[in-house]
Amino acid sequence: MNDWQRDWPAPAKINLFLHVVGRRADGYHLLQTVFRFLDFGDTLRCEPRSDGRIVLATPLPGVPPETDLTVRAAAALRAATGATAGVTLHVEKRLPMGGGLGGGSSDAATTLMALNRLWHTGLDSPQLQGIGLALGADVPIFVHGRTAFAEGVGERFADVTLPAAWYLVLVPAVAVPTLEIFRSADLRRDTPAIAAGDWHPGFGHNDLEAVACVLYPEVRRHLDWLRQYGGARMSGSGACCFVEFVQESAARAALAALPADMRGFVAAGLDRHPLAMIVAGF
User: Fold this and answer.
1) Do 49 and 67 meet the contact criterion of CB atoms below 8 Å apart?
2) Is residue 46 a contact partner of residue 64, using CB atoms and an 8 Å limit?
3) Tell me: the pLDDT tens digits for 215-239?
4) Does an H or E element contain 129, and which?
5) Which of 107, 109, 153, 227 is the most exposed place for a label (fewest CB within 10 A)?
6) Coil/strand/helix, residue 270
7) Which sign, positive or negative, has the C-alpha torsion 29, 35, 38, 43?
8) Which residue range forms the structural domain that includes residue 244?
């Protein structure tokens, strides 16, 4: 298949735990987390242009195209490499805004990886991660492309091997602004740090969850419903919540039992980003 005709996947991520272990002098929070990708997400298509422009064919309501992370990612790659080619970006959105599933960051990372190949700019994964970090703290993990324990502001990785699992993810009908959660005076910022090798499945919690549940009661309601199936967690800064299952059938049975005023989806956990085998540097 011609790469310009390819659909480029931008998967969701979940945070299996998320601890705030400190704060830098510049205000950025120091985190520890484990990122896992899901077999569910957005899709990007790229169309070449001869006029050198970067155009978003599918702008989000209320988001000026020039501030969209996909457009910014394309512009950042051009600035870093001296590329002059143009592109029209088509994004099929499935991941919610303000959901904690990394939708915008995943779209930006996929844009970087796709255009790095399509424009023949030849950057390796660490170089693309560096560009991505300037766009957002969650962008580098999608370029890194593997399940990982992350720390710092989320840019230092130690790969993790996890058993196969299925996840029921609920999507409350609220968008949670990340900055609002991190700016809260009630956010705990002193959870003791651990060594990456000491983490194991089931360990930890999400420090952002308590703040989000107070500010957005719908998040708490969805978590409370999920907890009948096990140790439910909020992902990222919310609003989406998830619980893990060993069997797909059990996850789908829980989805079928979802109250009429809740919505969600079932997805398998992924060990690697879907683009890991076709993008240079992986």
Assistant:
1) no
2) no
3) 999 999 999 999 999 999 999 999 9
4) helix 125-135
5) 227
6) strand
7) positive
8) 1-282
Name the residue among 4, 3, 18 with its Cα closest to residue 141.
18
Pair type for strands 54-56 and 86-92: parallel
Would you state the pLDDT for residue 1? 55
pTM for this predicted structure: 0.96
Give Rg (Cα) of the chain: 18
Tokens of residue 1, six digits: 């298949």
Would you give the end-to-end CA distance of the chain in angstroms?
20
Active site residues per annotation: 13, 138
Q: Which three-class secondary structure state does DSSP give residue 23? A: strand
Question: For the domain that residue 247 is a member of, what is the CATH number?
Answer: 3.30.230.10
Counted domains in the chain? 1
Q: 165 with 171: CB under 8 angstroms? A: no
Q: How many CB atoms are located within 10 Å of the residue 183 CB?
A: 11
Q: How many CB atoms lie within 10 A of CB 45?
A: 17
Q: Pick the closest to residue 43 from 63, 64, 57 (CA basis).
A: 57
Instruction: Output the CA angle 146-45-268, nearest 5 degrees.
Output: 35
Low-confidence spans in the chain with pLDDT less than 50 = 280-282
Token pair 């959105």: residue: 93
Per DSSP, helices labelled H in 63-102 are 69-81
Residues 6 or more apart whose Cβ sits within 8 Å of residue 27? none
User: Helix 125-135 and helix 69-81: axis angle, to 10°?
Assistant: 130
pLDDT digits (tens, 9 = 90+) for 112-135: 999 999 999 999 999 999 999 999
Q: Are 230 and 255 in contact (CB under 8 A)?
A: no
The number of beta carbons lying within 10 Å of the beta carbon of residue 84 is 8
The string of DSSP codes covering 145-169 is -B-EEEEETTTEEEE------EEEE
